[in-house]
Amino acid sequence: MKILVTGGLGFIGSHTVVELVNAGYDPVIVDDLSNSNIKILDQLTKILGFTPVFHELNLCDETAVSKLVQDEPDIGGIIHFAASKAVGESVQNPLKYYYNNFYSLINLLRLYGHKPLNFVFSSSCTVYGQPDVLPVTEDAPVKAAESPYGNTKQIAEEILRDTIAAGSKFNVIALRYFNPVGAHESALIGELPNGVPQNLVPFITQTAIGKREKITVFGDTYNTPDGSCIRDYIHVVDLAKAHVAALKLMETADFKGYDVFNIGTGKGSSVLEVINAFEQATGVKLNYQIGPKRDGDVEQVWGDVTKSSEKLHWKAELDLNTMMASAWAWEQYIAANPL
Ligand code: UD1
After folding, report:
1. Which ligand 1 atom is at minimum distance from the Cα of 203?
2. Is the pTM of this model over 0.85?
């Protein structure tokens, strides 16, 4: 079955393309290359042994999406990753976020909406803000968003729920990701941040390889055991497999409509624990310092993954050491083989 993977050359998208092929699906990649690199297509070719179908287009362009629907009429599912995702940038430039993240979603829903399709949406644990109860379950209240980026995820979930309630032919699963890190075991694909990384693990690996002088831990006075923030880090390959599980669930006769799942490990790790795990897994000492808190950071969040394990029949398998070792192997690969 052909699966349209929007943002399929990005970090999570490229890993999902590999897992789709492993599961017997036929991925069709769409990407506008605004935050990805065309050479990832060559890297996918090395992993898969063939070049996946690729369409370069911006999903906000209605004419381009109409043409895509004509060119790719027999799509059985859509995994929609393509979106702007930098929290800080979204505060500076909210209209870019509202424009990109909504027009693309709405164009896909409208223009592919004439036939039944299984649709997986990339949502985020950011919709919970700082939860009152941990681990956080899917029925925890959605809190006022801290950023336009977070708001786009909340509103996109509402757009999808409303569309399904209005009798759309789609089935939809929204996956609320916790913190995706790590890289494919081949070290041929991984995270490729634009400029200075905003996220913890790419900053760690770039510091370890000498691209950055040191890493700053954003605060050590939080109300957590070691004072640094806690997140639920999940290996990107486990996360990619959750998308396959979501498609499989929607293909069963008893799934109808809309559902939402937490995709994490169910375990929280502090920033200092992540740094320690990196040093343990790689034998590389990190130059780090404690700095001030970062605006907008939640103190601690990790997911309850009971619903995903029971209904989605999916569970994360890879541990923090594997996340760190694979992220490091990828950083070393791109240092030696710049894309
Ligand atoms: C946030 C969102 C997530 C979103 C992501 C996009 C939440 C809970 N999560 O992730 O949904 O997809 O942004 O970027 O809202 N840190 C440092 N030093 C650094 C970088 C990070 O100490 O140089 C710390 C942060 O304070 C945080 C942790 O590392 O505690 C993880 O940060 P990051 O990787 O940026 O992800 P989130 O902010 O959790």
Report:
1. 23
2. yes
